[in-house]
Predict the 3D structure of the following.
Amino acid sequence: MTQTTKQGNKKIYDGYKSFQYLEAGVDYKEYKLSKENDRVEPYVYPVSADEEETVQEILVQDYIVSMHEHTFVMPENLQEFYEFRRQGRDWTGFEALSQSGLDVIFENFMDGTAMITSQAGWKWSDVIHDLGIRFSDIAHQDMVIKAERISDLYRAKKEGKIAFVGALESSTMIENELDRLDVLYGFGIRTMGIVYSEANQLGAGLREPNDGGLTVFGKQAVRRMNKLGITIDVSHAGDKTSLDTIETSEKPVTINHAGARALWDTKRLKPDDVIKACAEKGGVIAIEAAPHSTITHNHPEHNIESFMEHFEYTANLVGIDHVAFGPDTLFGDHVGIHDLLAGQLSIKSAQMANLQKVEYVKGLENPAECFPNIVRWLVKKGYSREEIRKVVGGNIFRVLEATWAK
């Protein structure tokens, strides 16, 4: 295939750029942002002409869902990143998303690095500010719609739009206030992680050497999320906290961006018992592609092949009905930002020391590149249309039907 492959499932996009309703230099400080497309050399996973035709049919006909992304556009100069974050105003890569093939995006914002009032992130006021600014931007354009009900997901594709699902990677910002979950639901949040890598009032994150499991307050929070209709995630939770959450929840729980620890032994990936428990509860495990995460010994250089090895291992372990994709990508230098924010993001706790470092993940570099290549890989490897339909969206829809309020 050439780099001029025609992309199906393009959205109705009128050229809107974030915050164009304001005046740069007057209402906000302007920064030079990373390219949304072609920041690095584009990569099209090689398939035959007939296979590409099938790929395009899938992108047009089926629901394509990413369970975990960060669609914001980083500043090109990473030395400006801290100043950029303190302003509390994030740009969204609308143009690239219009070409991504995606119908539904779980937007996880950047609240681990929300640094308006603190460099630690996850502060209540900073998170509320972040959500309000992003949703204000979305309210000023027409291609992306704020999705709060299942019907919104179906409506978006029919109208040539993208459903934008509000998600948070941790519940740290609620502190010990259960009603804050109601507030976040009111803002549009529909899925939440119990904990990021550092422990909070609910339980232990993967960074903690001693995982005491879900706290009493954590169990109360799980029950409140069940009642509200917030899908619960344990991607960054410690193993015992993950298992306790799955057991406590009356509804399916997700692992919306991780991989299999059996293939690459880091705390950031999940052991077989946690993956199995998630699936047995009816949940879904979405495979992530953030740099230096889903590596394998067969493919030590992180790329689409190592990523898909994690997918196949997980599908073989728990069945095709419980696997999906949550690439966890963004627009900008993802490796550079991991290096810059190693402390805030607990990178050392999540990665092996002697990994083979890459500048970017070839084939999965940003939210616009991932799914066309994922579908190409699946078609190339002979997966059936029904199997592909499940893993690119159907399995996620099933979990949302079981967890969201009707």
